[in-house]
């Protein structure tokens, strides 16, 4: 995510709006946030070192991604508020954003940064009451909001002296084993703060009244604001030591990373084994020499595509558009309505529900499908490219979720390769296994959403095993182990994956088609009944003729017998 850098004059105005005491408080708050990022980086290299991420299953669910994302957003907000004094926070936020993007393919929420900055500035101008509605799970976000806006009428809580986290409901803070003064949320924070706290750590009996404050609480007198001469030199140091020298190294509340250091050097190589970091392997590994071939020019694409293939891809794109319409309706139904309160600024940090998460990920895959089809079809797929990019932009803005461009490029390459294959070679094409190996995943780790995406890719590549499967008439989802297609209740011919697809397809086009089919079937039934009646009538007429013939034959036989009897009587009388 690219951010526009404010002008020097704007930074000076922002600095002038905050006095020295408030600036020192914000700097200390930003240092705590950087400590929290530093702790998470250490947990990333060694998950067993942190109690919260010691369980491999929890770590595989990417629980650290939203936390690092929140830290990057807070550093961005503090950097914008502090102006030139916040350049260290801006640089730290950029490093966290780079790690966030390369490891989890996530980006920061720009709107959230703007809301935090706007709310803080509005509070500085007027004393408007601000309400923050947070879930119990998001303790760290709530802690930061309370610290940023100190006017909230909340009970002060003890915080960790290193990362500033508040204790959970079922957990208490632990004290330093030496002086028993600073509090820590876990053993890892105590170890990471040991180097800075050790000079001030004393026995409880020898501790002076000046040492009653936690060692990580900075003395505001030591934090100096840069002078005008420093500003003219191109910026100021965030803080200075007691001897007046600028501290450019790793300090108590900061971490440094040179610009030439690759992100993968921050992670130990022994932590990249499959049992630890399966989802993070491809993103945290060193860059390999293998590269993806560039797609051919659009003219070559159009030349190798037949009319039948183009029609098939256009039909497939229409299925994806229908699927996107369905997923948007699912998200609108699952989303919680936002309550507006007059005279209050409400920042909601509640986590999404499971239905919302499902709909969001389905929309992400829809955008990815549309982008793939748009790249293959070129000019014929402009509508697919437009809808895919618009959906991705909306997801990035609202939920910080984007598509994977490498997967799109692989699917396009597979499609190009498929055009030169016969059916036998196509049956050996295993795109799913290739993409799983590239992502560092195992086949058993796929959920049903990813399975549907890979099944769609097999259908795109015309893999023989996938072409013959039945699919939903509205969204194109194929039958699978987790999905059973059901026929329309009226015509008994059209198949659907669920009730939603049937309703949406009925309103869109199937209603008229199904009624015409019913009328046609009714007409055929009437014609069949008429034919049967006609045959029955014809059969009855023929039967009547046969009966008449039988009667005539009986009459003739009777007459013949009577004639014979009369002749026999006359013969007998002559003999007498």
Characterization of the model:
Keywords: Metal-binding, Zinc, Zinc-finger. It is a single chain. The protein is an all-alpha fold and 576 residues long. The protein has four domains: 1-154, no CATH class; 174-220, no CATH class; 298-341 and 349-484, no CATH class; 493-567. The chain is 56% helix and 3% strand. The protein has 22 helices and six strands. Strand 2 and strand 3 (183-184) form a beta hairpin. Helix 15 runs antiparallel to helix 16 (382-399) and helix 15 runs parallel beside helix 20. It is elongated, with a radius of gyration of 39 Å. The termini are far apart.
Keywords:
576 residues; mainly alpha; two-stranded antiparallel ribbon; 56% helix; elongated
List the helices and strands and how they pair.
Layout: H1 8-16, H2 20-45, H3 56-60, H4 64-82, H5 87-104, H6 110-125, E1 130-133, H7 139-148, E2 174-175, E3 183-184, H8 187-192, H9 194-197, H10 228-232, H11 274-277, H12 281-284, H13 298-304, H14 307-334, E4 345-348, H15 354-377, H16 382-399, H17 405-418, H18 423-427, H19 431-439, H20 448-460, H21 464-467, E5 486-487, E6 495-496, H22 499-575
Parallel strand pairs: 1-4
Antiparallel strand pairs: 2-3, 5-6
Helix pairs in contact: 2-4, 4-5, 4-6, 14-15, 15-16, 15-17, 15-20
